[in-house]
Amino acid sequence: MKRLLLLSILVLQLFSGDLLFMPYESQQALKQLLRWIDQAHSTIDVAIYSFTNHTIAKRLKGAAKRGVHVRVIFDRDQALKSRYSQIGYLAKYRRIEVFTLEGKKLRTRDFMGKMHMKLAIIDGKRLVFGSANWSYSAFKRNYELIYFVEDYRLAKKALSAFNRMVREATPY
User: Fold this and answer.
1) Distances (CA, A) of 50 to 39, 72, 117, 119, 150
2) Which of 15-19, 81-85, 106-110, 153-157 has the lowest mean pLDDT?
3) CATH code, 16-171
4) What radius of gyration do the chain's Cα atoms show?
5) pLDDT tens-digit readout, 119-140
6) In Å, what is the CA distance from 133 to each residue of 5, 7, 24, 146?
7) Which of 62, 15, 66 is nearest to 34 (CA)?
8) Phi and psi at residue 106, in whole multiples of 5°?
């Protein structure tokens, strides 16, 4: 009986966040992301493959102006080849650090992998992750999912991985 109760509590804890499916819940997903950015007090750490949504970039800029330390890791190839990438826009502002990172090189080819994450860690306790890039297509046209959860333990683990990536990344 105790094991069943513990298992039930763990399952409820795991699914205590908001799981949203786009394009059906696009408005709600974007609204939640912008609200969490606006509520940030100290840090926002983002690892994102494709970031072309200017509305989200402006909210990160606003957070930085409020004193929030913002770090964003972009996939190197995607950020530098997309004319809509927000990398140059964000790199201009104080309290925003911008990095590029490519995936690991395959041993048998000259092909580099991708930094393909879609992750945000806010104030070391809130996580946003899923399949959605921060692009207009992801929030309007694509079939994507995005998960919002407050979980200090998971955020701490994600932040540890994020910091490892920062050490391997190149400042923009």
Assistant:
1) 23, 11, 9, 11, 24
2) 106-110
3) 3.30.870.10
4) 17
5) 999 999 999 999 999 999 999 9
6) 37, 33, 16, 9
7) 62
8) -75, 140
Reported as a single tens digit per residue, the pLDDT across 19-67 is 999 999 999 999 999 999 999 999 999 999 999 999 999 999 999 999 9
Domain boundaries, the chain: 16-171
CB 82 within 8 A of CB 57: no
Q: How far apart are CA 168 and CA 48, in angstroms?
A: 15
Nearest to 169, CA basis, from 109, 91, 103? 103
Between the CA of residue 108 and those of 85, 119, 150, what are the distances in Å? 31, 29, 41
Residue 77, both tokens: 């190839």
Tell me how far the alpha carbon of residue 115 is from its chain's centroid: 12
Q: Which of 171, 111, 122, 130 is nearest to 48 (CA)?
A: 130
First to last CA, the chain: 55
Residue with the two structure tokens 């205590």: 16
Q: φ, ψ for residue 89 (rounded to 5)?
A: -60, -50
